[in-house]
Amino acid sequence: MTLFDANTWIGRWPFAFLPAHDARSLVEHLHRHGIRRALVSPLDAVFAPEPGPANRALLRATRGIAALVPVPVINLALANWREELAACAADPRVIAVRVLPNYHNYRLTSRVADELVGELQRRRRRLIVQVRLVDERHEYFALRIKGVPTKAMGTFLARHPQLPVLAMGMYRPEIRELLPRHPRLLADLSLAEWERTVADLLARVSPRQLVFGSHTPFLITAAEVAKLTAAGVPARVATRIATGNLQRFLGE
Amino acid sequence: MCIIDVHTHPVCFREGRSRAAVDALVARGRALGIERMVALGDVLAFSRSQTAAQVALINDETALLLRWHPDYFVGFCYLNPTLGERAVGREVARAVGRGFRGLKLEIANNARAACMRPVMAAAEVHGLVVLQHAWSMTKIKQRAFHTDPEDVATLARRFPNVRIIMAHLTGCGVRGVLAAKSCENLWVDTSGAAPETGLMEYAVEKLGAGRVLYGSDLPVRDLPVAIARVTGSALDAATQRKILRDNARALLQLP
Questions:
Q1: Handedness of CA B193, B196, B200, B202 (dihedral sign)
Q2: Cα–Cα distance between A224 and A171 in angstroms, integer?
Q3: What is the pLDDT of residues B108-144, one digit of tens each?
Q4: Is A66 on the interface with B (CB under 8 A)?
Q5: Residue B36 and residue B72 in contact, taking contact as beta carbons nearer than 8 Å
Q6: For residue B68, pLDDT beyond 90
């Protein structure tokens, strides 16, 4: 099965013993697990005062590496977000941008999020919302960062019913609640789990709305690959989740 | 691949009780290389602190699994220590008579609580392994009844002759591994939360390959994902084999 991974990162994460991948080591790692292409964002953009330097480094590091599709991070709490978006979108490889509302101190229901939607539509770029990066129970003790609330996601999606949105890091109950109500919403599988995860989700959710995401390096890549490759769902459905839905989301 | 899963809930929130569901689970487990499953019971079926009748029902269901598939399931007896010494003694006696090999403690009380004394005494007398629910309480403010890895370590030090499994390596994290390190009668199972990179290797480095046991927490977790936490780690094949089977086989004295 060919895998197109919606959810990978390069850089260093200070709160766990994770490998700090650069672009080349990430590609090698993913290839060892049968992942041929991946969307990749810079971890350094999560806690930096502003994501510009990390985005620039990401675009440099992925140049000439066809297997990696760079996904810069946009911080809507900062006055320069439009400039940052414009700078990133000047690179034709940038098809989507990622936002982390709860790491960057704004709400998805705020006016600025609506303004971002307008900018992205004008520039024909896609929106990826990082609902969470890690299980909140395991956050560093001094941090208090909860996932993007399901209610806020619902409100935002209801305001933009035609907007395709890819949500990363949602839990199983959140996927089961939101995706049936919002047919343009897609979700990666990384933090959703139950026995027979994929089949369990498909009982409630259209197969067109799930995408494979390993959340490398946070999670054990082989385990996330097994979630799909050992799912026991029909090959046609597995292929959609493995590659097709993400390609469609990106307009390929 | 031969696997013993030390942490499963074949019946969970009242689901999975039918013979057909259990047969299907056994078939799926065998297809994935799981040769035995430790059945811990539907431990949160009614509340976090079950009545004596509810405890008995939960254990009756585990006993039924053993009757249906005696060569597959290993029974652990769920207990609510807050019910007191007599209730605990009665339930342990039933469990021993049924061939259960361990005791399961959930979130009725913290593992440091005085009500654990008769539980641990019974475990020692009958040679039962204790599997204690544990999770880092740093972010969960429920330590009055929830058990932190430090509490399991305290329990292990208080009862050095009882073999204890601390559940949920990922939930306990690095701090939990370090808490467990000095307690030779304490093992940790690999279940809990999403499969975080690096923890398996860290646990083996600090505890040694002999004190880590494969556990899935089925059905809360997906079996192929749980197995790949071990097989997808950087650990060598011999260490993986110990975690997946050999350690549990020795601890539970399985053939």
A1: negative
A2: 14
A3: 999 999 999 999 999 999 999 999 999 999 988 899 9
A4: no
A5: yes
A6: yes
Across the interface, whether the CB atoms of B139 and A194 are under 8 A apart is answered no
B199 touches chain A (CB under 8 A): yes
Chain B residues closer than 8 Å to A135 by CB:
193-194
Q: What is the reported pLDDT for B99?
A: 97
CATH code of residue A98: 3.20.20.140
pLDDT tens readout for residues B139-159: 888 999 999 999 999 999 999
Full residue range of the structural domain in which residue A244 is found: 3-250
Report the C-alpha gap between B100 and A41 in whole angstroms.
50
CA–chain centroid gap for B98, Å, is 18
**Domains by residue range for chain B, with CATH:** 3-252 (3.20.20.140)
Please, how many CA atoms are within 13 Å of residue B166, restricted to the half-sphere of its CB?
38
CB contact A136 to B (< 8 Å): yes
Q: How many domains does the structure of chain A reveal?
A: 1
For residue B1, what pLDDT is reported?
Answer: 79
Q: Dump pLDDT digits (tens) for B26-50.
A: 999 999 999 999 999 999 999 999 9
Alpha-carbon distance of A223 to B227, in angstroms, equals: 8
Q: What is the pLDDT of residue B46?
A: 93
| Burial readout A102-122 (b: 16 or more C-beta within 10 A, e: otherwise) | bbbebbbbeeebeebbebbee
**pLDDT tens-digit series, residues B144-199:** 999 999 999 999 999 999 999 999 999 999 999 999 999 999 999 999 999 999 99
Measured CA distances, A55 to A52, A84, A97, B47, B93 (Å): 5, 9, 10, 48, 64
Test mutation, B139, B199, B202, chain A, max A CBs within 10 A? B139
Residues of chain A with pLDDT under 50: none
